[in-house]
Write a structure and sequence with these properties.
Elements (H helix, E strand, L loop, with lengths): L2 H13 L3 H14 L4 H13 L3 H14 L4 H13 L3 H14 L4 H13 L3 H14 L1 H14 L3 H14 L4 H13 L4 H14 L4 H13 L3 H14 L4 H13 L3 H13 L5 H13 L3 H14 L4 H8 L8 H13 L4 H17 L3 H15 L7 H14 L2 H7 L9 E6 L5 H9 L4 E3 L5 H8 L19 H16 L8 E4 L8 H7 L4 E6 L2 H9 L13 H21 L4 E5 H6 L1 H11 L46 H6 L1 H5 L3 H7 L2
Parallel strand pairs: 1-3, 1-4, 2-3, 4-5
């Protein structure tokens, strides 16, 4: 094959997202013509596209030895070094590129970025000005990106839309516009739409795929996210960071074994970062490999000593105790005063667990309380809005309304919902059920609340859930029930006749559930209120549960939860089975029989031996439910009693109404 055809074939392969094929074409030609600088440059670019930066550097340096006055080679080599964070080495190469050819706009931009990375701001500004002058669209995008970074979202959006008005196919502007919409939180669908458009125009635009992945995960579109990362891998098959994204998607989609395998490949391909090691540790924990998980958490900390989230993740194993050296390291990090708010919060919660294990309750409370006070301003929770919403639900879902609309939903009896409050023992109930031969344990499915709150979302009069359900007819109830079954099926793996849906926050939607799936079973996991609130206050949740970071918010939420459950018992007698954690740990077999009977399942001994079940468990209680039943968590609130006067007062009536056996067990 002659040189011209070989070059064209390699370029075509690159255009068609086949960098491996481009590499093969270049290497084949170089076997007979090792001095072809054009092929060496294309080989370097194909290796760069695959994420093989060291190999790309080697080929580009060889090309420069053969042709030392080729400006684009200096730009390419500078890019490769900058991608490796070797900015001091990249800068002189990029400077040489723009000296040899001042009309290379991207070389000016890359030089500006490298100069900025090493703190040479004024020189960076000069290069950015050159870049803006030579590439006006990119200049406007850069200005928009600066607005976005500074939190000026309206100005950022205007800049990106200005570019798109002039050039509707500028995929970089589309990506940044999508990021802007995504950060507004209420518009993830807009973000997805722009990124879909960008990837349809430029299927090899890896950055767009990598931005789309997290958007889809945030929208709980797990399967689509997996497909998204798989598309990115087609463009850069040797890029470890893309594989790490796929591994995270597998983990969130409840494919832990695939996630483990993919994380291992990601690390092997160079994604040797603190975040990758932590993600790998999370999924190892999920499948019960605690020792390996700890090794990976500690690898993350070695990569990034101020990584508070990794320390908290170790604490979150619950059955793990820190070494003294690790406690001192965490306290040293807090004393530096250089931590982000998030890192500081994570260190506080981890140290709370560390000192509780050491028996120093005062010190533990100080750290837990400090962590909660720092976390509360970082999250959004309106107690009055929540109370108003719950009141609306009880006013709509009366006994009369339910009787008028029931028997219209889907007859399926597959779902077993486990509701309650976090840290109330719902994972234990789930593990018991998932140990039955007829029950598949899935995970915390967001499906029910998403369907309910979607009703009326686009009505012109803005009437949403729960008022929007008043006008539903038989077809609607049937349709929403089928939608739940279809969406839940995406999270299922086996063909077992029943499955669990353990999302504690589903308790306000029990009435809606009954009307769309009248045969679904509901179990309400309960725990002595003071132990429950304390357990939640000591827990730093990955997302949601924003009511747990303030003592008053917690008792207020608990009272509203208790009121809501009483409402369901009143209007749907027998629908909800209360399972008290204290009863379960004091008399396991009796409670197992009670749970199985409520679900219409025959007794199986395996449910009593739930700790032998090797299934993946994603929640904070994952290690605890892998142990035989124990009573050590009963009455833990007693250790902290002097700090809990508000809860003792607020929750007194709820406590007095509890079964006597539960009260006695919690006071031991």
């Amino acid at each position: 094959m002659n040189k011209k055809d070989s070059i064209q074939n390699a370029l075509d392969a690159m255009q068609n997202n086949r960098p491996l094929r481009a590499e093969e074409i270049c290497r084949d030609y170089l076997l007979m013509h090792p001095s072809s600088v054009d092929h060496l440059r294309l080989l370097g670019q194909s290796l760069m596209r695959q994420g093989r930066l060291i190999d790309a550097e080697e080929q580009l340096r060889l090309a420069l030895k053969l042709k030392a006055d080729f400006p684009q080679l200096y730009e390419d080599l500078g890019s490769v070094l900058a991608l490796q964070q070797r900015f001091d080495e990249a800068i002189p190469l990029l400077e040489r590129a723009v000296r040899l050819e001042p009309r290379l706009p991207l070389a000016h931009k890359k030089l500006g970025q490298a100069l900025l990375a090493v703190g040479r701001g004024e020189e960076a500004d000069q290069q950015f000005e050159e870049f803006f002058e030579k590439d006006p669209e990119s200049g406007i995008i850069a200005i928009g990106a600066n607005h976005l970074k500074a939190g000026r979202k309206d100005e950022a959006m205007k800049a990106f839309k200005d570019v798109l008005r002039k050039n509707p196919e500028n995929v970089t502007a589309m990506r940044y516009l999508a990021i802007t919409y995504f950060r507004q939180e209420e518009n993830p669908g807009e973000a997805e739409a722009w990124l879909r458009r960008a990837t349809s125009i430029a299927p090899d635009y890896t950055a767009a795929w990598m931005t789309l992945g997290p958007v889809l995960l945030e929208m709980n579109k797990f399967i689509e996210a997996i497909e998204c990362y798989q598309s990115a891998i087609k463009t850069v098959p040797e890029n470890g960071h893309v594989w790490a994204g796929l591994a995270n998607a597998y983990a969130q989609a409840s494919y832990p074994e695939k996630s483990v395998e993919t994380f291992e490949k990601a690390i092997k391909l160079g994604a040797d970062t603190a975040n990758t090691h932590m993600g790998y540790a999370h999924v190892l924990k999920t499948i019960g490999k605690q020792k390996q998980a700890l090794e990976s958490y500690r690898a993350a900390i070695r990569k990034q000593p101020d990584f508070g989230e990794a320390y908290w993740s170790m604490a979150n194993l619950k059955v793990f105790e820190f070494k003294q050296a690790e406690i001192l390291a965490m306290e040293d990090q807090l004393e530096t005063g250089n931590l982000s708010d998030s890192a500081e919060v994570h260190f506080c919660f981890a140290l709370g667990k560390a000192w509780e294990d050491k028996g120093n309750i005062d010190k533990a409370w100080n750290y837990y309380n400090s962590g909660n006070k720092k976390q509360r301003p970082l999250v959004t929770h309106s107690p009055l809005e929540m109370e108003y919403r719950h009141t609306e639900i009880t006013e709509i879902f009366t006994r009369e309304f339910i009787e008028k609309n029931e028997n219209n939903g889907v007859d399926a009896a597959d779902p077993i919902l486990i509701v309650g409050l976090p840290r109330a023992g719902s994972t234990l109930v789930e593990q018991i059920l998932a140990s039955h031969s007829q029950v598949e344990g899935t995970s915390e499915l967001p499906v029910l609340s998403q369907i309910a709150t979607s009703i009326g979302r686009y009505r012109a009069d803005r009437v949403g859930f729960p008022k929007s359900v008043v006008e539903l007819d038989q077809r609607d109830w049937l349709g929403y029930g089928q939608e739940y079954i279809n969406e839940a099926a995406r999270h299922r793996i086996t063909k077992k006749p029943f499955f669990t849906d353990k999302l504690p926050n589903n308790f306000p939607f029990i009435g809606f559930l009954h009307l769309v799936l009248p045969n679904a079973k509901v179990i309400n996991a309960r725990r002595f209120p003071l132990d429950n609130c304390l357990g939640a206050y000591k827990q730093l949740f990955a997302k949601g549960q924003n009511f747990t970071y303030d003592i008053e918010d917690l008792s207020h939420y608990y009272l509203n939860y208790d009121r809501m459950i009483k409402h369901w018992h009143d209007v749907l007698p027998g629908k909800v089975l209360d399972v008290h954690y204290e009863d379960t740990v004091m008399d396991l077999e009796t409670q197992v029989r009670k749970i199985l009977s409520h679900c219409g399942l025959p007794f199986e001994e395996s449910c009593v031996r739930f700790h032998e079940n090797p299934r993946a468990v994603k929640t904070a209680s994952s290690e605890q439910v892998r142990q035989p039943i124990y009573t050590g968590a009963l009455g833990k609130w007693r250790q902290y009693e002097k700090y809990l006067s508000l809860w003792l007062e607020d929750l007194e009536d709820v406590i007095n109404e509890l079964p006597e056996a539960v009260k006695q067990a919690a006071k031991t």
